[in-house]
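Structure, all two chains, one model.
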Amino acid sequence: MENIQNFQILWFILIVILFLGYSLLDGFDLGIGTLLPFLGKKKEEKDILINSIGPFWDGNEVWLITGGGALFAAFPQAYATAFSGFYLAMLLVLLALIFRAVSLEFRANDKARTGLWEIFFIAGSCLAAILFGVALGNVIYGVPLDNKMEFAGNFFTLLRPVPLLFGITGLAAILLQGASYAVLKTEGELRQRSFQALNILLWVNAATAGIYFIVMAFNFHPLLENPLFYAAVLVTLLGLAEIFFSWKTKNDNALFWKSSLSFAGLWLAAGAAHFPNLIKAINDPNLSITIFNSSTSLYTLKIMSVIALIGMPIVIGYTVFVYRVFKGKAAADHY
Amino acid sequence: MSALLLARIQFAFTVGFHFLFPAMTLGTALVILISESLYLIKKDEFYKKITDFLAKLLGLIFVIGTATGITMEFSFGMNWSEYSRAVGDIFGPILAAEGVIAFFLESVFIGILIFARNKVSPKVYWLAALLVFLGGHLSAFWIVAANSWMQTPAGYQINEVGKIILSNFTQAVFNPSTMIRFCHTVMASWMTCAIMIAGIAGYYVKKGLHGQAARTMLKIGIILFAITPLLQLATGHVHAIEVINMQPEKAAALEGHFVTGKGVPLYVAGFVDEQNEKTYGIYLPKFLSFLYNFDWNSEIKGLKEFPKENWPPVNFVFQAYHIMVGIGILSIAMGLLGAFLLLTKKIYEAKLYLSVLPFLIPLPHIAHETGWISAEAGRQPWIIYGLMKTADGASVVVSASDILGSLIMFLSVYLLLFIMFIMLFLKFVKNGPPS
């Protein structure tokens, strides 16, 4: 089948998978970052939490870089419109990611200002965690576009209720990732506290995900006829329920996977609601940027498919290897 | 100021700042690989100390490189959206390939290098060092390939609606300038790190600190310092010939060469009067022609062959280029002097030479920055040489005030990063290898 549409659909799915991978992996370290002041009461506890993500966060961030690159390579019109249109929001994302990255290194080595870098780390993590959801909410809910595919709104266009709901839902899911990862990586009192956080976040997620699915169902009309949407609701419910019912088991690994499962449901619903749009035009559906009117050529999509389908399994393979090297509980000291 | 000019300043500043860090990463990864290989073979503890010291330094360098590198990927869409729309077919897959094939490798295994010394066997640790080295260099390859495509585009077609379409991926990636520019860039970073290592170790040896580890580090540093500037001279030479052939007006601007002719002189230093189209300064007669193909009378095209609106800012790139070359020549001399002192076994007592070494550390950075300025400003007014003007590549929905705001933000944040980097770098150097 040489049909370009097949490759456009494939790349829609692959980009959703790349961003899902990013949410699950960078999700847990952004989650740890945001939860740091609530989970870590003593300096030593904070060190443990930070060391638990130390070897991983930069590899996790490459999922975003690759997702962005894939969007550029497969659907450059969508990439160009979103990044230039959401200029100030993207600038905030950059600011958040820069500070979250460097503050880890600075905190460890600039002993005179540990507290300051900690604040930068927490703020950067939290801001990034919210902004990704808001950005996604905007492209799914729709923004005004002109007939040259350019964004026709302003910064405040981005702050409407539905995109903000996406931001909060995303934040809640990221915090759940963070809390379940903290349970996995810590011991004793710290683990106890992570459990409490997980318990609270479970109910928070039940609420945010519930509202998210209801808002989705009412705002995106054919969605109630789409079986993928029901599958998405089921996956998220299953993930959350599994966490609830496996409270007493001692398998910390499983909690992380269940949290990831509930997050994957949110993405599945977003993908089902959005397809085949990439950026919906709220002013006129005909102006929407879709996978069919914004993609690169068939040849480019094929080259990209070869690179991704050979490359990504290898990446996942060695990523698993490195995670296994660091398996077990994190310690307070490194280097 | 116009939005276009602000966008250009912002890109130049953010990419110029970013490059300081990858320039150190590649060479540091090389020296880590060397010392870790020696550790594996000879089992001497001081090799391990060198690796551990450099791994800590690499962690600091890498984190700032990553943080400022994300800005670059965002900036194509944020500030150069019309460029991105035009080149998605070619530039996009190259950037995506960089992520999948290279950056993952480097970022995932650097975790082992920095955090897992005691968690893995020496062989696995060595493998991680190798993979970080490979990942970094592959990364450089893809990024330089993307940039080279903007200099010497190949493997594309213009379709019926005037869009640039990829026609041959291999030709686009291995366009006429990719390989030589990749070699030139890698050698620049090896040189940067060679001088950094030699400078740090020189300081230790002179102060009598860290014993055998410092002396070995100095030896590795000096050997690389002697070899890399010479190799850089060779890659620079081949690259210059490539530019004369592929981008003659850029080459002419770099050399301040206006009138096509035979027996063209080579300016060592000088000044270009763009108004009167004349270059003043010290020159070697007929030397540029000689360097071009070892014929004193070979013909080289001058700027006047080309419409003036397609000239780059001539004096600006002339000066940048000559600073780069000057530092290159100085590095060759200093590197060879070091090699001479090493061979005659006088290096550990050569107080004057050792005290000068640390002050050389910024020089290769100035050289690679001015080199990039020559390459990028020298391509102007084109964003893709011969195909698309820079003015047509900028985002249309982003206002000058937006960019002014973001530029001020980047200036202040990067200044903070720079101060922190220098502070922690000096602290790491002061602490030295673990005792």
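Residues 134 and 304 of chain B are 44 Å apart (CA to CA).
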